[in-house]
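User: Teach me something about this protein's shape.
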Amino acid sequence: MKAVSLWTTRAIFAAALIAFSTLPTSAFADRDDDAKSARKDHRSEGLVLTNARIYTMDGSNRVVDEVLVKDGRFVEVGKKVDRAGRVPVIDARGRTVIPGIIDAHVHVVLVGNRPGWHTPMEHVFTIPDAITAYQARVADVPPGDFITTIGPISAMQFAEQRLPTLAQLDVVGRPVYIQAAQGGTRANSAARAWFMANAPGVNVADSGAVTGPALQALRSQLLTPETRKRTAFGALQYFASLGITTHRDAGAFHSELPSNGIANENTYTMHFPFLALQRERNMPARLRIDFLHQDSANDPTLPTLAPRLRNSFPFFGDDWLRTGGIGEFTGGGVNGLRAIAAAGWRGEDHSLNLSSFLSLVNNRQIVHDEMVAAGNPDGISKLRWVISHVPQVTEAAVNQFKAMGGGLLVGWGPTRTGTNIGPAYRTLFDNGIPLGYHSDGGDITVINPWLNFYTMITGRNLRGDLVNDGQQITRWETLWLATAANKWFIWEDDVGSIEVGNHADFVVLDRDLFSVADAEIPRIRSVLTVIGGKIVHDAGMLQVR
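Assistant: First, the predicted structure itself:
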């Protein structure tokens, strides 16, 4: 494998400037025009989905049989739709259909910047199945090139409760490197030989366990603009096969140069591969970008946050890729919150325990009260600020934040251990505060929504331990949080439900969420995923007539 030189930050920005300066004006002229976009995708003729059990998640919670899609939007939703004009018809064969899933806080941009031929593996549940999946991947991978899985895999998802060994990975026939969201690292003999030749500080034991800066070495030597774009496309496409049609990305820890940290990337350049896909009109899912900042509360100049607020725009872009707010960390403490509020941006911080939740709520109260005292009666109440994860809360603090117009994101926990670990799904759902679903996956946990849904519905982690007894919610409530409820969190009303006028985002499932045994929920996948009327995943199980 030929090593490539590291992209420096200066070189990246220079290349980007040249690329943007040489693009014709017409490349941007119709970026926000849905009708023109539809014509480019050859989908203005529309399609009909029939013989389905379609959970619309609309205001009436209708379940219907058919939908008609034209120009990327639903134009009829009901039992008998107009089929005039030689409209292609997809027979769902009685399958369950849901709106496209919205993950309102995820780290898919990190996944899209992984080195090697990255291969997410959150859909397999035994080591033999994982090996088979890696062997199938070999057909795409040139000899000597790395197959990697960095983030979207967890030891707990496997029946064996561990990752594959070096010997098991040797049958793949390519260098393999695994760094799990949870469960350690593994490599095979071919990868060990590469590390010995190219990164002497990395050691691979006979078991396959890896120590040393392996990820940093792979990033330094394997990443190029083209490999990043390939991986970005593959990541969005993979999760579309699991039903996710919209990702709200929550950023990364900033590293100017390649880092060994799984949650680290250059936050000023990591979006470039996704921007490239968007320019080519080749996004296989919708992406919403938030900007993570970690300025010190003791530095009133807000060295990174202040320039962001001055020079960027929230909610700027098109239906496929758009900027969002500040988060998963706002940075700068109360001073940072003041600046975000003054600029009119959405802000989000995460909470890992009760003390952090109480502190976050109280800091927001300070800013809210200051704005009211200064003559703005709304304070922060119209900015839809968010606190995510929330494993521990009090009813009083939840109500306090609700009174400020805040919302909470939950869904975190399928790989966690312990008892009563939260979030308090049942309590928070019944409270009435704006509540939505997120995975927080891609670096420290899994993204696959069905693994997360399993925990929300059963109270059990992927090993089967009862970790959140008494806080389970129903299957319908779980799906609602991941679809219609998340409209609030991404500030978009025309996704998340199957209604006339909305973007035609829907997923045909391979089994019925509402009737399968609990143990089958993690195994649910999409047989057909449609985004804006465009088929982005097709397992070949349905026919068009």
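Now, about its shape. The chain has a mean pLDDT of 92. The CA atoms of residues 293 and 331 lie 5 Å apart. If you'd like, I can walk through any region in more detail.
User: That's plenty for now, thanks!
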